[in-house]
Structure formats: structure tokens, C-alpha cells
Design goal:
- The complex is a heterodimer of chains A (115) and B (111).
- Chain A has 115 residues and is mainly β.
- Chain A has strands spanning 3-7, 10-12, 18-25, 34-39, 45-51, 58-60, 68-73, 78-83, 92-98, 104-105, 109-113.
- In chain A, the strands form two sheets. In chain A, strands 2, 4, 5, 6, 9, 10 and 11 form a seven-stranded mixed sheet that branches. In chain A, strands 1-3-8-7 form a four-stranded antiparallel sheet, with no helix packed on it.
- Chain B contains no helices and eleven strands.
- The mean pLDDT of chain B is 97.
- The chains are: A mainly beta (115), B mainly beta (111).
- The A-B interface holds A 44-47, 59, 61-62, 95, 100-108 and B 36, 38, 40, 47-50, 53, 59, 91, 93, 95, 98-105.
Chain lengths: 115, 111
């Protein structure tokens, strides 16, 4: 059974940093693209970044380029999202999912950017 | 790529069919000839769950009441007989052109 468990969310001030983690199990982690997506509560979905199985390719949505960094540790079956220079508009529930096309999703972790 | 959906609100009686339309601003045909158009269901208080990938392929465990069709820029999700468990928001997502993008969502409710 595929399991994706996000952690690391919380309250942070504008301009601050946060690192999200996603622990994966139930599939061959290193063979899969992995994705971070976000959803403002009550609003729609947005893909933020994804990373190839071996970490050799990464893609970001324009609104987070230069501020967010996606990475993975295949030895630990873990995905990360380092978020710097956070803005109010980054407030959202952040989900990790496996596959380029969002095969399975975790339960999400809430990030609140507010002073 | 901008994804649009209609209707945005869909009241349906139990046991009746439902249909959601999704349109993309560009063709979603990938270089291998396939189209990366996915459908997701998000029940109240839950994470998104993918139902359909590559236009018409049902994910494991998805009831055969759900079906997807379409090509190019026009796609449709059909539910043959709506059940109470189907209440939620349905999103289409294109996975051909980065950044992959979602439609605004269609809220299905029981009439």
C-alpha cells in the first residue's frame, strides 16, 4: 500500500523559511518522479515542483523559482521542499504525491505565512 | 496551459448520470501520441485522489461508474449513476506542458 506522510508545516513570518518532508513507502521510491502541490484552503490545486527519480531533473512553477528547492534522499525514501523568502501567498496545505501525474497523495501539511 | 471546467456546480439526484467537461487552451497530445489528462476527486476534508489518467484509464479501485473520454483539447468525465459517496470537487489536470495545471474544479452535490 502506497503511503505518503508529509511533515514540517507550521506558522512562519513573511521572509522566513520552512522545510517540508515527505516519507514514502509501498512503492519503489527511486523509480518515481515526485511532486509537491499546494492548495489554499477552500481553493484550487497548484503543482509547485517536481523531481525525477534519480534527482537529475527538477521543475518549478514560476511563482516559487529561486525561493523553493525540491530534493530527495532515495536511501531514506524521502522527499523535501526547502521554502525560503516565504510570502503571505504561500499559505496553503502542501501535499506530496508520487508520479508526474499525481498517482497518490499524502494527507498534506499546513503552512501559514503570517506576521 | 489554462484549464477550464463546466459546470462549476453540479447538483445531481442519486442514481442519475453526471458529466463534467474540461477544456485546455492548448492540445495535450504528448510526443508519444498520448494525452496526459487526469481527473481527480477530492471529497470533503480529504486529499485529492486520482480517478482517471491519460484521458480514459481508470486507476486501481475506481468504480467502473467513472469513465473518461476526449482528445486534443476537449475532455469529459462521466459518472453513470451518482452515489452519495461521489460528493466532492472534481478537478481535471493536464500533465503534458509544464507547469502542469488544474481546472478550477466542479463541485458535485446531491440534489
Amino acid at each position: 500500500e502506497v503511503q505518503l506522510v508529509e511533515s514540517g508545516g507550521g506558522l512562519v513570518q513573511p521572509g522566513g523559511s520552512l522545510r517540508l518532508s515527505c516519507a514514502a513507502s509501498g512503492f519503489s521510491f527511486s523509480s518515481y518522479w515526485m511532486t509537491w502541490a499546494r492548495q489554499v484552503p477552500g481553493k484550487g490545486l497548484e503543482l509547485v515542483a517536481n523531481i525525477k527519480g534519480d534527482g537529475s531533473e527538477k521543475q518549478y512553477v514560476d511563482s516559487v523559482k529561486g525561493r523553493f528547492t525540491i530534493s530527495r534522499d532515495n536511501a531514506k525514501n524521502s522527499l523535501y521542499l526547502q521554502m525560503n523568502s516565504l510570502r503571505d501567498e504561500d499559505t496553503a496545505v502542501y501535499y506530496c504525491s508520487n508520479g508526474e501525474q499525481g498517482d497518490y497523495w499524502g494527507q498534506g501539511t499546513l503552512v501559514t505565512v503570517s506576521s | 496551459v489554462v484549464m477550464t471546467q463546466s459546470p462549476l456546480s453540479l447538483p445531481v439526484s442519486l442514481g442519475q448520470p453526471a458529466s463534467i467537461s474540461c477544456r485546455s487552451s492548448q492540445s495535450l497530445v504528448y510526443r508519444d501520441g498520448s494525452s496526459n489528462l487526469n481527473w481527480f476527486q477530492q471529497r470533503p476534508g480529504q486529499s485529492p485522489r486520482r480517478l482517471i489518467y491519460k484521458v480514459s484509464n481508470r486507476d486501481s479501485g475506481v468504480p467502473d461508474r467513472f469513465s473518461g473520454s476526449g482528445s486534443g483539447t476537449d475532455f469529459t468525465l462521466r459518472i453513470s449513476r451518482v452515489e452519495a459517496d461521489d460528493v466532492g470537487v472534481y478537478y481535471c489536470m493536464q500533465g503534458t506542458h509544464w507547469p502542469y495545471t488544474f481546472g478550477p474544479g466542479t463541485k458535485l452535490e446531491i440534489k
